[in-house]
Design goal:
Elements lengths: L1 H11 L9 H31 L3 H4 L4 H11 L1 H21 L5 H8 L5 H12 L6 H19 L1 H13 L12 H37 L32 H6 L5
Helix pairs in contact: 1-6, 2-5, 7-8, 8-10
């Protein structure tokens, strides 16, 4: 929805500074309650995950305050992102801009084009589908869309403004208000951090694939022996593809983000 609104706004503004579109402020007012609710929803998911995994069996039920503090430590950057969106970006976008720069606001909405692949990746991890082709294809798509829509976002905005004002690209930061540079740097920092995590995850994924493909195949196993009463069954051997049926149980203890 955000990317659709961003496309409509950005393509409707011929003058990137002075043109306005009613959808800009309307969508910002719509998005603010979402960020507030999303903080609450993420906490409920985290708390439910703790209870389902049996973390409270040995230590007893945790108070809500303890669980919330643990949630803040684990998801600090995401919660900080949402809080800044509500407390800083909302007043800046609605009041400080004074109706100027709707084009830039629309292009920033287009950053959400990377969100579907990020969410699909988390869903596939929850269902233990890291070994599937869908997970690998989605990983490449997430890497590309996140880089284009979020990492290159502010360099593109600076480039567009430089063309509009006939300023060389490298001089644009010295020609705009310092508040713009500060805001861009503050919003850019978490994007670079998350992108580094995506790159590391993609590197581990494809290194694992190449490592398994280069291994020599295991010799054919002998026919299974008949188990005698009272004897213990031997532990299953590791399959040639490196995927063990017990891996989902092991991964549950350490969720991946």
């Amino acid at each position: 929805m955000a990317s659709s609104a961003g496309y409509i706004i950005s393509t409707s503004c011929e003058d990137i500074i002075e043109d306005q579109h009613w959808l800009t402020s309307a969508y910002i007012l719509f998005a603010v309650p979402y960020f507030v609710y999303d903080i609450y929803a993420m906490f409920l998911c985290y708390w439910h995950k703790l209870r389902v995994k049996g973390h409270e069996v040995d230590n007893g039920p945790k108070p809500t305050s303890v669980a919330f503090l643990s949630y803040l430590r684990r998801e600090f950057l995401m919660v900080l992102h949402h809080v800044v969106m509500v407390t800083v970006c909302f007043p800046v976008s609605v009041f400080w801009r004074r109706g100027r720069g709707d084009y830039f606001q629309g292009v920033m909405f287009l950053a959400e084009l990377s969100t579907p692949s990020v969410c699909l990746g988390k869903i596939l991890i929850q269902y233990k589908q890291q070994h599937t082709l869908l997970h690998k294809v989605n990983g490449v798509l997430m890497l590309v869309t996140f880089f284009v829509c979020r990492v290159l976002l502010f360099p593109y905005l600076y480039y567009v403004y430089g063309r509009y004002a006939s300023i060389p690209f490298h001089l644009v930061p010295f020609s705009v208000p310092w508040q713009c540079n500060l805001g861009a740097a503050f919003l850019m920092a978490p994007q670079l951090y998350w992108f580094s995590l995506i790159c590391r995850g993609a590197l581990r994924l494809f290194r694992g694939v190449s490592g398994r493909s280069s291994r020599p195949p295991l010799p054919d196993s002998p026919p299974p022996k008949t188990e005698r009463p009272g004897s213990h069954a031997p532990s299953p051997a590791q399959p040639a593809n490196g995927y063990n049926a017990r891996m989902p149980e092991q991964e549950t203890a350490t969720p991946t983000h």
